[in-house]
Amino acid sequence: MIIKNYNELKNYFNNSYDENQENIIDSEKMDGYEMDFDLSNSVEWILKFDEEGNYTSYPNEKLKENKFRITKKHCNLEIPEHRHEYMEIVYLMEGKIEMTVDGESITMKKNDICIMNNNVKHSNKALSSDDLAINILLTDKVFDSVFMHLLSDDNYISNFIINSFYSSNKTKKYMIKNIEENSFLESVLINLICEYYSNSIRCKSKINGCLLLLFTELSRMFNEPKEININKKCSKIKNNIVEYLQKEYKETSLLKAAEHFNFHPNYLSNLVKKEFGKNFKDLLIDIRMVEAGRMLRTTDKKINIIMEDVGYFNESYFYRQFRNKYNTTPFEYRKQNLIKS
What sequence ranges are listed for the domain HTH araC/xylS-type (predicted)? Predict the structure, then answer.
């Protein structure tokens, strides 16, 4: 089956789509949760309490394996307040949805898109048979792969994703906007959903391409001057990284630095590459060599002590890196540059 356009997609959802196939949550039901609506027997939930006592939806095995999923919101089913351990994008193709997001009542209308990070508590009233809403569920693994380079840009959507997955900041954020009808972004979304439910050659490649285009276009749509930058660290990250490395150069590593900044290592690596034009390892070596040069000029420490003070215990490797930086040996460098007190 190949779905080619908006009308074919609507026809598929109205006539061929089986809601029972989309059991996005596949564990035990909650015990003792009082509901004023009926859950279909085919719908199973992982709704557990998080450390703060919030009902939390966790990704099932299929979502973990595929990194993202697209589902149609169930009709005639009210969803209680909860949050996710993944990012959710709600796209309304037809009708309306009444939702409560982060304590605020909102009504989504046709062609609205709502992006919620994994900290936002939300719920929605039951949809009617005339309403058609799509959920796009994304885990952090989506951005660890082909989309990681997008996150090195300092814009609103990039910072939104960073705070959703790669920061310890528990900021609750959501964004909602209306997509212009017949726009390129609408076309990307429809193509993404069509491809997901089609059985076509190179389906996975096209889906990845559509996701890449989707977040590129979202970064443009949400990156308006009036928007407040979510992650203020990004505007100062270059100075912050230099200051950190100048203090911690002896024992730090990419993993330790990422932990310090509450970033994913892949994200920090891409950010360093963008900001400094070199990878993290080379930047660290450069800072260590600068410090080694300073100590050779201003102290009478033995060279092997300086070597260890800047984080090296392999003499040949230290000498090689020093020569690459200064085009001479540590001994000759001191002889030529020693500042006598």
Answer: 239-336
